[in-house]
């Protein structure tokens, strides 16, 4: 059989044809025999058991019955029209009902011939019935490829409309495997298969579609999941290794005067053990001459900014400049204020560049940047504009990097002859399983320790009926000199969503907290930047006690005196967003509080989110729950990353297999870094194919 057999266009498969092939390509991306072979079932149904009609009970899920159709009749008119078949098996009778495809079944069903029917049982009056059952002549049922478990394949609304049923897909798959035989190329080495007791590729592929037993199905799916995760990890590890060996970076060989002076004389607090560990990792990276590409994870308030400053100082001590790029003006301003305050007594020059900076000020920044007198530039995507030219950029720090596109980041790397060292920071904790698959090509540092003296934020859940009690508590806190955030999910009233909107909320807060005793600010995304800045500035200065806002304050506002966060309609927010919002308080020495306000109508998922927030302030624990609730595709913009386009494996459910696959890949590369050993030839071949960006499941020979 030719090695490219699985490249055969799907049109040529018996039972498909051009029209159906076009539909399969449009709906499921199936163009070739290989594509169809790699359409794996979502689930399996055990069809080894046959029921008798007298054994049926109402709503008894899906059943399989052998019997005969003795009578057909059409009832009703128009949309109420239906075809009813009387079906008997010797123990009783029932009805089979079709609302769609009536003509087909009326013309093709054979009376008094043995059939096997399959479907979900209902009871109407005294009669059992199955609506739209799978129907197959008993002799055909016995002659075709049989397995203990029947696969249920992915489908779409269009496929269903065009009568491409699961039964039809199963028949296509049977035809395919009768032609394909054992033409799947083994991708793993004998040693790896023996080490992990993995079945061979052909056995795995056949039993994934036509399992001969539950045990073989389990072994086959495990093998395919391992293979998928193993090659993802091999790609990521090789990318990391290649980058370190080929992409040269600037060697920051000395820890000089600026770093040592700041560390000894200007550091406002003792670093935590976690911060010290991370700084050492960064120093080691940047001292080697290889290009640093490191991800820094740190929960809200864990002290990433001070690590960023120390990283910048290492660059400056070695004759280089540094930049910090943030996704929003608010966050860029926050970084600028924080870094400027920390470095105010060092004589170093720090500037802010955003879309709001006036032309005259921009000219000064551009000039100082080019002559090297500007040491650190902080800004938004304005930093990557072509006219922004550094004299000698040595390190680029990117905050919340998942908010930037690949092309945007690439422009930053081209701001010097050799790419600057890269430190990517995120305050959104990424579960380890997801980090291994998304950022396996980055080195990862984690600040998993909060600064001393920080009190844990007390989080409570309150229903709308408790609002007066909540307002009383807010007044008590304001009397103590504290400030309050009140966050709403919507700006304007929505006809379809029954949630408090921002303007209604603002009006009710102003009524409850009247001037001149109380001052209330309002901030939302539709305000002019200058108005937003004015309101925020009033709150920062303590001129207003309450900030009513949308999630615009999710990142960027740092008010140590704000000790209470009230989140209205908290059920509307995701876990990550709730955690980020809560992180706006708890920045001072006072006890801080987060109050989650909801209606009584909570879905199970929303209740889980609220209960998780009340139970823990650990961002990594919250991220694990978030991953289980939402799946990897919806977190961190990973849907665009490509690396998670998994066919068989599931990052959440299969994290144990992921860890085994990664360790296997690490061990293999330690023994044979270039994959030159004969036993690794198949693995090398797959990786070469993957580098052409065609994907693992397009691999044929």
From TrEMBL:
The gene is recG. GO terms for molecular function: DNA helicase activity; hydrolase activity. Residues 285-447 form the Helicase ATP-binding domain. Keywords: ATP-binding, DNA damage, DNA recombination, DNA repair, DNA-binding, Helicase, Hydrolase, Isomerase, Nucleotide-binding. SMART domains: DEXDc (SM00487), HELICc (SM00490). Its EC number is 5.6.2.4. Plays a critical role in recombination and DNA repair. Helps process Holliday junction intermediates to mature products by catalyzing branch migration. Has replication fork regression activity, unwinds stalled or blocked replication forks to make a HJ that can be resolved. Has a DNA unwinding activity characteristic of a DNA helicase with 3'-5' polarity. It is an enzyme of class 5 (isomerase). Belongs to the helicase family. RecG subfamily. InterPro entries: ATP-dep_DNA_helicase_RecG, DEAD/DEAH_box_helicase_dom, Helicase_ATP-bd, Helicase_C-like, NA-bd_OB-fold, P-loop_NTPase, RecG/Mfd, RecG_dom3_C. NCBIfam families: PRK10917.1-3 (NF008165), PRK10917.2-2 (NF008168), recG (TIGR00643). This is ATP-dependent DNA helicase RecG. PANTHER family: ATP-DEPENDENT DNA HELICASE HOMOLOG RECG, CHLOROPLASTIC. It catalyses: Couples ATP hydrolysis with the unwinding of duplex DNA by translocating in the 3'-5' direction; ATP + H2O = ADP + phosphate + H(+). Transmembrane segments: none annotated. SUPFAM superfamilies: Nucleic acid-binding proteins, P-loop containing nucleoside triphosphate hydrolases. The keyword DNA repair applies. Residues 473-633 form the Helicase C-terminal domain.
């Amino acid at each position: 059989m030719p090695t490219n057999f699985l490249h055969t266009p799907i049109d040529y498969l018996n039972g498909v044809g051009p029209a159906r092939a076009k539909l399969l390509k449009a709906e499921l991306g199936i163009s070739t025999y290989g594509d169809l072979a790699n359409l794996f079932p979502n689930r399996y149904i055990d069809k080894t058991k046959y029921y008798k009609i007298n054994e049926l009970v109402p709503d008894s899920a899906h059943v399989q019955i052998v019997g005969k159709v003795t009578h057909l009749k059409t009832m009703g008119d128009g949309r109420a029209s239906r075809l009813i078949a009387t079906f008997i098996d010797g123990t009783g009778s029932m009805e089979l009902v079709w609302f769609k495809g009536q003509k087909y079944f009326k013309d093709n069903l054979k009376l008094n011939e043995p059939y096997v029917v399959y479907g979900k049982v209902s009871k109407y009056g005294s009669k059992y019935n199955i609506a739209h059952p799978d129907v197959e002549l008993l002799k055909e049922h016995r002659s075709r490829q049989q397995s203990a478990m029947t696969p249920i394949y992915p489908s779409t609304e269009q496929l269903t409309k065009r009568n491409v049923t699961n039964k039809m897909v199963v028949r296509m798959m049977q035809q395919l495997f009768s032609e394909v035989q054992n033409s799947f190329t083994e991708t793993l080495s004998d040693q790896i298969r023996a080490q992990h007791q993995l079945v061979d590729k052909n056995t795995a592929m056949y039993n994934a579609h036509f399992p001969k037993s539950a045990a073989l199905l389990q072994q086959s799916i495990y093998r395919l999941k391992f293979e998928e995760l193993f090659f993802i990890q091999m790609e990521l590890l090789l990318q990391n290794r290649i980058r370190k060996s080929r992409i040269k970076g600037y060697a920051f060989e000395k820890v000089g005067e600026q770093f040592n002076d700041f560390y000894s004389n200007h550091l406002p607090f003792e670093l935590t053990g976690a911060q010290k560990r991370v700084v050492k990792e960064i120093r080691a990276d940047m001292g080697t001459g290889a290009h640093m590409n490191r991800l820094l994870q740190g929960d809200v308030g864990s002290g990433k900014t001070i690590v960023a400053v120390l990283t910048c100082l290492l660059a400056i001590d070695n004759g280089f400049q540094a930049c910090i790029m943030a996704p929003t003006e608010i966050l860029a301003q926050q970084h600028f204020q924080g870094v400027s305050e920390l470095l105010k007594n060092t004589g170093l020059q720090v500037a802010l560049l955003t879309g709001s900076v006036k032309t005259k000020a921009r000219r000064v920044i551009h000039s100082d940047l080019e002559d090297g007198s500007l040491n650190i530039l902080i800004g938004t995507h304005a930093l990557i504009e072509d006219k922004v030219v550094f004299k000698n950029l040595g390190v680029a720090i990117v905050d919340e990097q998942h908010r930037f596109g690949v092309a945007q980041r690439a422009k930053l790397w081209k701001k010097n002859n050799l790419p600057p060292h890269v430190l990517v920071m995120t305050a959104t904790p990424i579960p380890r399983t997801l980090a291994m698959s998304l950022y396996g090509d980055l080195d990862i540092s984690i600040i998993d320790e909060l600064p001393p003296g920080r009190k844990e934020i007390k989080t409570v859940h309150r229903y709308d009926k408790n609002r007066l009690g909540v307002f009383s508590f807010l007044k008590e806190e304001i009397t103590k000199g504290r400030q309050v955030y009140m966050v709403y999910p919507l700006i304007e009233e929505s006809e379809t969503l029954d949630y408090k909107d921002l303007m209604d909320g603002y009006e009710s807060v102003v009524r409850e907290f009247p001037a001149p005793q109380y001052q209330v600010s309002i901030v939302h995304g539709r305000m002019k930047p200058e108005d937003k800045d004015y309101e925020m500035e009033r709150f920062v200065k303590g001129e207003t006690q309450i900030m009513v806002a949308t999630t615009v304050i999710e990142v960027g506002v740092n008010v140590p005196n704000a000790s209470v966060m009230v989140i209205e309609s908290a059920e509307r927010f995701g876990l990550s967003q709730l955690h980020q919002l809560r992180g706006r308080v708890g920045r001072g020495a006072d006890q801080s509080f987060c109050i989650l306000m909801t209606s009584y109508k909570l879905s199970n998922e929303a209740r889980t989110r609220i209960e998780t927030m009340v139970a823990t302030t650990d961002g990594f624990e919250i991220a694990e729950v978030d991953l289980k609730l939402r799946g990897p595709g919806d977190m961190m913009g990973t849907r665009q990353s490509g690396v998670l386009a998994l066919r068989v494996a599931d990052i959440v459910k299969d994290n144990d297999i992921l860890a085994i696959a990664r360790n296997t890949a690490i061990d293999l590369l330690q023994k044979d870094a270039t994959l030159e050993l004969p036993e690794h030839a198949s693995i090398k071949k797959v990786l070469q194919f993957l580098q052409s960006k065609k994907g693992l499941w397009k691999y044929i020979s």
